[in-house]
Design a protein that fits this description.
Number of strands: 11
Helix content: 10-25%
Strand content: 25-35%
Order of helices and strands: HHEEEEEEEEEEE
């Protein structure tokens, strides 16, 4: 079947194409550049960036709770230097906490890897584990208190 194109239809298509090209900045003068958005000074942008998690070269942590900050383990990241070899790490109940549990430590690196069994109900007032410090990596674990509040601190082994 042969199509019958009228000259008016072709002219209409050309007009639509020309209009589309001019709106896209392809015909005639290029479109004006967009206005630059207002920017904040560098200092303000940096101040809003959360700080990176720092290493704490201590072998004791304290578990605390309050209604403003919730459950916290201080320090949130314990770092063990490579030359320290095997070390004992200890957690203690602090302000607002009577008992807690530690779960999820790697059993190949930490002995014991939990504060009790089952971990979700075996709460203690303090807990110690032997960190063999044989593998350089960051270990995540969980500290919980009654009521289901938990925190996810870290231990970094082999820090230089």
């Amino acid at each position: 079947m042969q199509r019958n194109h009228s000259p008016h239809r072709s002219l209409g298509l050309l007009c639509c194409l020309a209009l589309a090209l001019s709106l896209a900045g392809c015909a005639g003068e290029p479109p004006a550049p967009p206005e630059a958005p207002e920017t904040e000074p560098v200092e303000a942008a940096v101040a809003d960036t959360p700080p990176t998690e720092e290493c704490a070269f201590v072998l004791q942590a304290t578990v605390t709770y309050d209604s403003v900050n919730g459950l916290q383990v201080q320090p949130p990241k314990i770092c063990v230097k490579r030359e320290q070899r095997a070390v004992q790490i200890q957690w203690r109940a602090g302000a607002g906490v009577q008992t807690f549990s530690v779960c999820g430590l790697d059993p190949l690196e930490f002995d014991p890897p939990v504060s009790g069994s089952p971990c979700t109900t075996a709460f203690v007032t303090d807990f110690s584990t032997l960190n063999k410090n044989t593998t350089q990596r960051v270990y995540e674990y969980q500290v919980c208190i009654e009521g289901g509040y938990c925190d996810d601190p870290k231990i970094e082994n082999g820090t230089t």
